[in-house]
Write the structure tokens for this entry.
Amino acid sequence: MTSAEALREKLEVSIFADDLFGENCYLIRRRDTNAALAVDPGLQLDRVREQIDAEGLTLEHILVTHGHIDHVAGVPTLHAESRAPIAMHPDDLAILDWGAIAQYPFVPRGFTPFAIDTTLTHGMTLAFQDLSLRVLHTPGHTQGSVCFLFGLDCFAGDTLFQRGIGRTDLPGGDMQKIVFSIRNVLYALPPKTAVHPGHGPATTIEEEKLLNPFVPGS
């Protein structure tokens, strides 16, 4: 068994897609302890909290791939309840218009501005008890977009989808940058790396290099 396969044996991942945007929140749990991580808690927050409570999990970090509302709508409440630090790239604070967000009818009650507790940078590692994940800065969908890499599992936010890529016509978007990020950062990962996107089903780096119509592999 490789080290990446051994890592997968220690983790269990639950996916919660919201009903409005289809945004995926991932709850990453240790099989051997009650420790957990939440990636991009959004409008599906109630279901995520129910599972955390039902399994008696202790949340160690709230990981944010980027600052769009569907990915951060549940962050303040989950932080207030769990006291888990919020990990995010600082470049995306600029696109969080707190006044506008408060007017969205779908935003959960109690949403408040939040601060970053753990500032993410490219290549840094975050400890998850005796395990670690690597942060990949992948600007393009937004300036502060990041992916989280656990061995052969990449939680890619809205950078790379199955046969698609994140849109670049929103604030902070840049088509040249997202193509560069995918080709030079994500496509450099091992082919068997599983990509867990912010919307839609999982895929692999190998599949996207062969079949993605927007950024074909070289």
